[in-house]
Specification:
Elements: H1 3-21, E1 26-30, H2 36-42, E2 51-56, H3 60-65, H4 71-77, H5 82-95, E3 105-111, E4 125-132, E5 135-142, H6 147-165
Parallel strand pairs: 1-2, 1-3
Antiparallel strand pairs: 3-4, 4-5
Helix pairs in contact: 1-6
């Protein structure tokens, strides 16, 4: 297993262990990563205790119909935008509620893996949305490399974003 893949697997294992210890659940909304983030979490034994599931809303209209992203935001900015990432992260928590209980954390990926730009955004532009409690934020990245590398970097950063959220001594959610 390549070193980068091993690091991602270790990070995913750490995240699953932390979520399990804190009795928190997570739901995933993916666009450019196309299921890779959920697959990375599912690879970890015991993930079923914390992972509600995932939605791959690859086509833009699905971000609205499945995840509740505002159609006006999508029309004005396109799918690759920080507000879209925020709304995807919030929406997936409710969309994947179990027994009427929304997931504690929502994580979302949207961006451009290439080969061409999208919505006026350059290849490598990625936004992650993270929703926890009443707080939600987006983080922007500019990754380099080919399509597979950009998608892998997005998965790695998404896991790291949630891991940082869970670090002891940090506020529940820092803006």
């Amino acid at each position: 297993m390549p070193a980068e893949s091993a690091r991602a697997t270790d990070a995913a294992a750490d995240l699953v262990a932390t979520l399990t210890a804190r009795h928190l659940t997570i739901a995933v909304a993916e666009s450019l990563t196309g299921g890779l983030l959920v697959a990375e979490l599912v690879r970890i034994p015991g993930a079923s205790a914390v992972l509600a599931g995932g939605v791959v809303a690859y086509q833009t209209p699905l971000k609205h119909t499945l995840l509740g992203v505002d159609a006006v935001v999508l029309a004005e900015h396109g799918a690759v935008h920080p507000e879209v990432a925020r709304q995807m992260a919030s929406g997936v928590r409710t969309a994947l509620a179990v027994d009427g209980r929304p997931a504690d954390i929502g994580i979302a990926t949207t961006g451009v893996a290439g080969p061409d730009e999208q919505d006026g955004q350059a290849v490598g532009t990625v936004y992650l949305g993270v929703s926890f409690g009443d707080s939600v934020r987006a983080m922007g990245f500019s990754f380099t490399g080919g399509r597979a590398e950009i998608r892998a970097q997005a998965v790695e950063q998404a896991i790291e974003a949630v891991r940082q959220l869970m670090e002891p001594g940090k506020p529940e959610f820092a803006e």
